[in-house]
Amino acid sequence: MIYTITFNPAIDYVVHTDKMAPGKINRSRSEQMYCGGKGINVSLVLSELGVASKALGFVAGFTGRAIEDGIAGKGVETDFVHLTNGCSRINVKIKSDVETDLNGQGPKIPEEAVQKLYKKLELLRDGDTLVLAGSIPGSLPDDIYEKILARVSDRNIKTVVDATKNLLLNVLKYKPFLVKPNSDELGEMFGVTLSRGDEIISFAKKLKDMGAVNVLVSMAGEGAILIDAHGCVHRCGVCRGEVKNSVGAGDSMVAGFLAGIQSGDYGYALKLGTAAGGATAFSDGLAEKEMIYRLLKQL
Ligand SMILES: Nc1ncnc2c1ncn2[C@@H]1O[C@H](COP(=O)(O)OP(=O)(O)OP(=O)(O)O)[C@@H](O)[C@H]1O
Ligand SMILES: [Mg+2]
Fold first, then answer.
1. From the CA of 299, which ligand is nearest?
2. Tens digit of pLDDT for each residue in 138-156?
3. How far is CA 116 from the centre of its chain?
4. Chain centre to alpha carbon of residue 130
5. Parallel, antiparallel, or unpaired: how do β-strands 10-16 and 30-36 relate?
6. What is the best residue among 179, 253, 295 to mutate for testing ligand 1's pocket, by most ligand atoms within 8 Å of CB?
7. What are 247-250's contacts with CB under 8 Å, separation 24+?
């Protein structure tokens, strides 16, 4: 089973308006709502690819229930810790001539809720996969990724970490199965700006030397580079299409890679990840099955 953890799930409320006048009453032309958070995004795209996963994390209030129902309706199993206070956040995305985002803070996560999450991690068995993605809310300790990886290190669990800077560097000692920084995040980890492919490969190899088994570096519209478990370098370009919203493309790539690697073929996993990332970039919401497999044929 693949488990994903989302500490601070959200409902993204996307409103489109022709002109946005601050301080005035504005009217929306159309609106959509999506359940999100990086771990949930991975689970939703896995579900599109026919791969079962279970979403863990914290939810609260009526928005939390809406998130649980929403993702369960898309075929994702859920086992969230229910917080007694507060509400899961709503992120407002105003799409006009410019885009304005107002992201909620989300509920406070008390220590006893963290202990409940740790208890759920005891259910993971040899061969399971655990995906940790995104930032850490202010009410959680900033070494929680390390603590989680330490807790599952007594079993043969494939861990996936998609996080920035020290959050990622500090977990490399637990030999995560996959890390997926984008090229800007990879540069930031080493205090450099990366643009050339050969530089990206050499810094990606550093992450592998520091413990990561597979290193996947995404480069948005420029494609992706994979250093696989054997140290082989794979490169993949991107699919063609009209970009609508590239937020979540990285999460979709992680899902595609995990679905693809079940075949044992790293090249195929990179392609399925690329098709899933592209399908999200070319959609208003997350990638859907039909587009992912259509784009895969381009690669
Ligand atoms: N404009 C695009 N055109 C085609 N494919 C894209 C585009 N943007 C992203 N992709 C695909 O999705 C993959 C991941 O994208 P990106 O590098 O933007 O991830 P990210 O920065 O981690 O995104 P996020 O954190 O918002 O999920 C890329 O390697 C590529 O395959
Ligand atoms: Mg990302």
1. 1
2. 899 989 999 999 999 999 9
3. 22
4. 12
5. antiparallel
6. 253
7. 248/36, 248/38, 248/41, 248/280, 248/286, 249/218, 249/220, 249/277, 249/278, 249/280, 249/281, 250/162, 250/180, 250/182, 250/218, 250/277
Q: State the sign of the Cα–Cα–Cα–Cα dihedral 52, 56, 60, 63.
A: negative
Cα–Cα distance for residue pair 104/37, rounded to 1 Å: 12
- Which tokens in the block code for residue 15? 């409103």
- Which positions are catalytic? 251
Atom of ligand 1 nearest to the CA of 185: 21
All structural domains of the chain: 1-140 (3.40.1190.20)
Query: Closest ligand to 252 CA?
Result: 1
Q: Are 172 and 207 in contact (CB under 8 A)?
A: yes
Residue nearest to atom 19 of ligand 1 (CA): 250
Question: Whose CA is closest to atom 31 on ligand 1?
Answer: 274
Q: Does residue 134 register a pLDDT over 90? A: no
Q: Ligand 1 center to residue 182 CA distance, Å? A: 8
Nearest protein Cα to ligand 1, atom 23: 250
Determine the Cα–Cα distance for residues 219 and 197; give it in Å rounded to an integer.
10
Q: Tell me which residue of 165, 207, 169 sits closest to 184, measured CA to CA.
A: 165
The answer to whether residues 174 and 149 touch, using CB atoms and an 8 Å cutoff, is yes
Report pLDDT digits (tens) over 168-198. Answer: 999 999 999 999 999 999 999 999 999 899 9
- Whether residue 4 contacts residue 131, with contact meaning beta carbons closer than 8 Å, is answered with yes
